[in-house]
Specification:
Elements (H helix, E strand, L loop, with lengths): L1 H29 L7 H19 L2 H25 L4 H19 L14 E2 L9 H5 L1 E2 L1 H19 L1 H11 L1 H6 L4 H27 L11 H11 L4 H23 L6 H5 L1 H14 L2 H7 L13
Antiparallel strand pairs: 1-2
Helix pairs in contact: 1-6, 1-9, 1-10, 1-11, 2-3, 2-4, 2-9, 2-10, 3-4, 3-9, 6-7, 6-11, 10-11, 10-13, 11-13
Length: 306
């Protein structure tokens, strides 16, 4: 029972990073913008958050610094692709390469630094329930924030006027422009908000999840989050469930090793990425289903005529 509780708790922790980044990318794509730079943004945010936490002793300030770093990089990306009309895919890849190199350069002096483990939030009355308590109610506040953000975004996209306008921009920017909505500004706001969530996810990795700095520590999570939005058919609740699924696959390798399963560690380390490939392969078998759920203007530039 204790092993099961630990596995569930580890799954929720690992899934939080993917959920936050996936929600950020979902906001981008709902507005019609594809951002392949999530990996780079998360790396820069990770070193920004870690350096800030080391310098100030505050994990909260570290998370805020990561959020700001992600938002600034996303704003640069948005300016390039929305106002200068650069190719979204090439610009996103360039951002990922930049983030990997920049974070490695800046992070050299922080490789020996360590942060103390942040306190967990134990919910009174629930944290002591056998099995469920350790599994669900003894986590860092970021785990609960990811759940709250998912529910809030699901409501916002379907129930609020602003959310419906964002979806309209993602479906038909020409029609939204004809109705008088500032399409490019809305897209830029969506890109910045999405980048802020990716930045928060990156800072969470270096200050909470594994409170240290290692070059390339995001380890493909930005790419998995990108695949997660397609897997979830651009729906927030499915993003969260998918993040927990991928988080569970990631943690399964350590659980199996702890149980003494005689499998090479390299094979176990491949599990999250293998699962991503399998999921994308299965989804791609039904392109009509993807097209029916995908924002119609995804990846397409918009040039206002007036």
């Amino acid at each position: 029972m204790d092993a099961i509780a630990l596995l569930i708790a580890a799954t929720l922790n690992a899934g939080t990073v993917l959920a936050l980044a996936g929600l950020g990318l979902l906001i981008n794509e709902r507005a019609g913008v594809v951002n392949l730079g999530a990996e780079g943004m998360m790396l820069v945010a990770a070193i920004a958050g870690f350096a800030t936490a080391v310098g100030t002793g505050s994990t909260l300030l570290g998370l805020g610094a990561g959020l700001l770093a992600g938002a600034l990089l996303a704003a640069l990306f948005g300016w390039l692709v929305i106002w200068l009309n650069t190719n979204q895919y090439a610009t996103g890849l360039a951002l990922s390469l930049f983030g990997a190199g920049f974070s490695a350069f800046v992070g050299q002096r922080f490789t020996q630094e360590r942060l103390s483990a942040p306190p967990r939030l134990e919910i009174p009355g629930l944290a002591d329930i056998p099995l469920l308590g350790p599994a669900l109610f003894r986590h860092h506040a970021m785990v609960y924030l990811a759940v709250a953000a998912t529910l809030a975004l699901a409501w916002w996209l379907t129930r609020s006027r602003a959310g419906l306008v964002l979806r309209a921009v993602g479906e038909s920017p020409e029609s939204a422009h004809a109705l008088g909505y500032p399409v490019r500004r809305i897209r830029l706001a969506a890109v910045v908000a999405g980048g802020a969530l990716c930045g928060l996810a990156g800072a969470h990795v270096s200050t909470v999840y594994t409170p240290l700095w290692v070059e390339g520590m995001i380890a493909g999570k930005g790419w998995i989050a990108l695949a997660l939005t397609t897997f979830a058919t651009w729906r927030p609740l499915r993003v969260l469930l998918g993040a927990w699924l991928f988080g569970g696959v990631t943690m399964l390798q350590f659980h199996l090793q702890g149980e003494g399963v005689q499998i090479a560690s390299q094979w176990l380390s491949m599990l999250p990425y293998l699962a991503t490939i399998v999921v994308l392969a299965l989804i791609s078998r039904n392109p009509a289903w993807i097209k029916a759920n995908m924002p119609a203007s995804l990846g397409k530039p918009f040039h206002p005529s007036a």
